[in-house]
Amino acid sequence: MTPFPSPTSPPPRSALALTDVEVERIRNDFPVLSQRVNGHPLTYLDSGATSQNPISVMEAEQEYYEQRNAAVHRGAHSLAVIATESFELAREKVAAFVGAHTDEIVWTSNATEAINLIAYSFSNASLWLGGPAARRFRLGAGDEIVVTEGEHHANLIPWQQLALRTGATLRFIPVLDDGSLDLAAASEIVNAKTRVLAFTHASNVTGVINPVDDIVAIAKGVGAVTVLDACQTVPHLPVNVAALGVDFAVFSGHKMLGPTGVGALYGRSELLQAMPPFLTGGSMITTVSMEAAEFLAPPQRFEAGTQRISQAIALAAAVDYLTETGMGRIAAWEAELGQRLVAGLAEIPGVRVLGPGVGVERLGLAAVDVAGVHAHDVGQFLDDAGIAVRVGHHCAQPLHKRLGVTASTRASAYLYTTTQEIDLFLATLAEVRPFFGVTDAASSNSIGGK
């Protein structure tokens, strides 16, 4: 394989960014990255879907089971007390990591569950559960829920279903050819009828980072509740949910060096206090009779049953790892990798990048359409070379339809990704069309729209 040359105009180095030497050192903490796949060293470029785990995170979960395993918030014995303290310390760390108060973080299984928690709580409020305080969340005919055309299905389908359950109308803010939101349209679509505005912080397809301040200002202008999907930003950028001014935010542990099976919902304290519960049962009540029950204050109100204790503790270890590395440094490194990606892709004939081009702020990922070759074939060709990427619609079918494709191939970087891996991906991708015999000059490379 001919090495892919560095982009003609490589992005300028940031003094804040990690260095190649530091990244190589970081990689030593991730055992999975040392393996070989199909006879080649593994090049893992699918962190946008699921990140890898450092040794410290795996050890944290194992140590919990070896030394502190017990039911939290239930037993009075010493082991249960220690387990509860560890569980709540994990909540404190995760809350601090995103700029929230401890009682504003609710444990969930993932971000999808977190969004469903909000939507179903609003459904319960619409059924006149939760008392007078929940009145602000009640939806019905004439009310509107607004999402964007660029949403992951996790931040679309729960709102579709909420609209069906309540009679509210679902509307969406369109996406422009480069993947950015049409803010002019947003100002017209969001109106006095809008009760909820749900949007992604950054697209898992285009890498676009949305202007949260502008969107929140539009929502606040009409008194709408804002729900932020922060799955692609909390792992990669410094995020302070309070400073962003959103009412709710969600993120998943498995995308930020943590284990699967744990995520978090951030909700402003006064809103969580007013919301009726989604799941009911043990651990979220104060008193129970055969006729009725009274519920605990948040966050326990929304944490029915036995919790994901070991996963929360391991997620806190992941937060420690990210904090020690420095989120600003990680973000700067990934910004460089993202620019290296799009600069290199612009030089490959027949490859179209979905989203903004070189020089525009983006996450360290890029999804592409390779003219004449299906995304799954592209992915298989890359996998044969030991390169792991994502193929398909990335749980964003409406966005792909808007951009004129049914599927794409996505490479996504993280703090353990090297410039050499980016260049290897580019070099291998450049061989795809020749391998499949697609060489027509009509399919030129492009950025953005159709």
From TrEMBL:
Protein keywords: Pyridoxal phosphate, Transferase
Keyword Transferase: yes
Entry-linked Gene3D superfamilies: Aspartate Aminotransferase, domain 1 (3.90.1150.10), Type I PLP-dependent aspartate aminotransferase-like (Major domain) (3.40.640.10)
GO process annotations (BP): cysteine metabolic process
Identification of the protein by name: Cysteine desulfurase
Pfam family for this entry, one: Aminotran_5
Keyword Transferase: yes
UniProt-recorded Gene Ontology molecular function terms: cysteine desulfurase activity; pyridoxal phosphate binding
The species this protein was found in: Cryobacterium frigoriphilum
Cofactor(s) the protein needs: pyridoxal 5'-phosphate
EC number(s) reported in the record: 2.8.1.7
Function (record text): Catalyzes the removal of elemental sulfur and selenium atoms from L-cysteine, L-cystine, L-selenocysteine, and L-selenocystine to produce L-alanine.
